[in-house]
Each structure stands twice: as C-alpha cells, then as structure tokens.
Amino acid sequence: MSEISRDEVKHLANLARLALTDEELDQFAEQIDGIIENVSKVRSVDAAGVEPMSHPHSIETVMREDRIGTMLTPEQALDQAPAQAQQRFKVPQILNEGDE
Hints:
Layout: H1 6-15, H2 22-43, H3 74-77, E1 84-85, E2 88-89
Antiparallel strand pairs: 1-2
C-alpha cells in the first residue's frame, strides 16, 4: 500500500520549484514510501522505560563553577587594535547598511 501518491510528490516538487519528469515522480514516490515504511518500523519498537538521550554514549558533562575573575579593561583590550571607535574594535564595513 502506497503512503504517498505520485500527485503528492508532484505537489511537493511544485512547492520546491523542482521540475521533475514522470519517471522521477514515480521514483521519488517509491523512495518516500520506503522512508515512511522504515520510520513506521522504528515507531513500533517498544521503548517503554527507555530514557531519552541526546548522545548514544552515556557521558556526564562536568561543568566548572563560575568564578568572578579579573578582566581586561576596554583600554587594555583595544591596546593593539589597528582601529577603534567608541571603545570597540573598528572593522571594515562589509554590508552597505548604515553609517560606519
């Protein structure tokens, strides 16, 4: 049983502004059906009691404690800058927007 019709593939191709031949429409409809079938198989797996993970390995992220430390003053940070303006690094404009 087909999950996606050739007309639906044609509609998607039109939305994506793709010009597909009749053979390509048939081929993509078949491929998309295969993808949908594989996703359906994954959905049928009993995952009760399985904790969701963001990574396939059990890793523990170690975070350091935040500590306030000494920082550079604006003058120190800009000391070696080739150009500066308003206590900031001045770089060449790359977009034609606004003033320098």
